[in-house]
Amino acid sequence: MNEVPSIYWFRSDLRLTDLPGLSAASAAGPVLACYVFDELSDDAWTPGSASRWWLHRSLSALRSELQKRGGKLILAQGRPEAVLTQLACDIGADTVFCSREYEPCSDDTERRVAESLAENGLRLKRYGGTLLWEPEQVRTRSDTPFKVFTPFWKCCLTLPEPNLAAGGTLRFWQGQSASGVSLENLGLDCTDDESVRWADYWSPGEAGAKESLRVFEESALDGYNEGRDFPERAATSLLSPHLRFGEISPHRVFHFIREASRRRPDLQSEADNYLRELGWREFSRHLLYHHPSLPEQPFRSEFARFPWCGVKESLIAWQEGKTGYPIVDAGMRELRQTGYMHNRVRMITASFLCKHLLIDWRAGQRWFWNYLMDADLAANAFNWQWVAGSGTDASPYFRIFSPMAQGVKFDKAGAYVKEWVPELSALPPRYVHSPWEAPASVLDDAGICLGDNYPFPLVDHVTARKTALAAYDEVRAA
DNA sequence: TTTTGAGTTGTTCGA
DNA sequence: GTCGAACAACTCAAA
């Protein structure tokens, strides 16, 4: 029997399990898988260096996995509507299946694809699988989207628990088709100096994602509540880049952690707290869906007048991890070397950029976008706005992180600092977060010459704090 | 409609 | 060294 084939259009859902659209496609007939890289899209947020490095490897992993199951992955470059219509016509497919996306350009892209297919008598079918709940499902009683996390998450948890996609055998189309371009020719792989070490830290792909989840549940869920705040400990799941590329579904993570807490009721609170983090992912994506200007414009419009007055030299020092504040420098160097930064340190470095250096959060957002493996448009914009104070919550404007206090609280012995800022490795813990306070003899013994092999503080904390408070006063008064 | 309670992540100062 | 209060007052969501 000759069944009509269909196309599965992979996007940020680079996995074969828990993928409703792929299951549906497979149930309808044999599937040809395709990924389209649209380098020339008018979207200003094409993937940065780290994301491209990851994407390259994730596509490679997906291709191998498909081949093992008798399928193949067509890689293409260009506008998705052109590529998909052409491919569907070539093989005589009648439908293109995909997962729905929620970014500012997504609706438009999906509409263009649907229209182009329709002109040829074909159709696009969209499925969930990327979010636990659709943005339309989570509404306040007055039928508006939530702007505050806690009531949002409370509401989510009253909705029906999201289900895992039905399994079923995947069936792949065996006929001839255009071969597309090679993975190498997509030009995703990164040749930055930093990237040589990235492979030591990460295993992109569905198998790596499952392994990260398993390891987390086995060794870090117990103690998560306390451990997750300490950057030198392996106390977080490191799932963010896997989730970003859809190598694992949030549904699977949700169920897996829920199951773990059923087996171990003593871990209930840890499990709930971890799932809350999935909630933040969900919240930021819903918020971006409802407010597409989130990455470009302050959510609170009065912040459009904020007197950002930081200088280029300060931005460069921050980017290079040479601010003279050890915990800030450690975070920024961890980012460059690994494509990751611990959550606690993201807050400290981001706060430092906006409040100590008075540099527009969008400059920081751009830098993180380029270097984070897990760079996610929604989470990145949402969190930067939160730190800058222009975001949705009414967090007090005087909340300015002190790099020293944060260091002492969350990296008491300085292990994290010393790992990423090796020039401070011989400094006693007492001075590791404020080397400028160390007596000359201590600095000498540690082989540190301030201003030479480690910088003096770029700005004075107390002065910078006062200036930031004054700047925020200005915005509030206006 | 009005009221009420609550809101991710902090710092500093002084008793 | 520890602890509580002050920092200012705003918006959201639900009753």
Total helical segments? 20
What is the CATH topology descriptor of the largest domain? DNA Cyclobutane Dipyrimidine Photolyase, subunit A, domain 3
CATH architecture of the largest domain: Orthogonal Bundle
Measured on Cα atoms, how large is the radius of gyration?
A: 24 Å
Which strands sit side by side, in order, in the main sheet?
3-2-1-4-5
Order of helices and strands: EHEHEHEHEHHHHHHHHHHHHHHHH
What's the total number of strands? 5
Number of domain units = 3
First-residue to last-residue Cα separation: 72 Å
Broad shape: globular
Biggest sheet overview: 5 strands, parallel
Mean pLDDT: 93
- Computed structural class: mainly alpha
CATH superfamily of the largest domain: DNA Cyclobutane Dipyrimidine Photolyase, subunit A, domain 3
Helix content: 40-55%
In words, what does this structure look like?
The protein has 478 residues and is mainly alpha-helical. It folds into 3 domains: 6-130, HUPs (Rossmann fold); 131-162 and 203-291, Serine Threonine Protein Phosphatase 5, Tetratricopeptide repeat; 301-472, DNA Cyclobutane Dipyrimidine Photolyase, subunit A, domain 3. The chain is 47% helix and 6% strand. It is built from 20 helices and 5 strands. The protein has helices at 20-28, 49-68, 80-91, 106-119, 149-158, 198-201, 206-219, 224-227, 240-244, 250-263, 268-290, 312-320, 326-338, 343-356, 361-371, 377-388, 403-410, 415-420, 440-445, 461-477, and strands at residues 6-10, 31-37, 73-77, 95-99, 123-127. A 5-stranded parallel β-sheet has the order 3-2-1-4-5, with helices on both faces. It is globular. The model has no long low-confidence stretch (mean pLDDT 93). It binds a DNA duplex (15 and 15 nucleotides) through helix 5, helix 14 and helix 20.
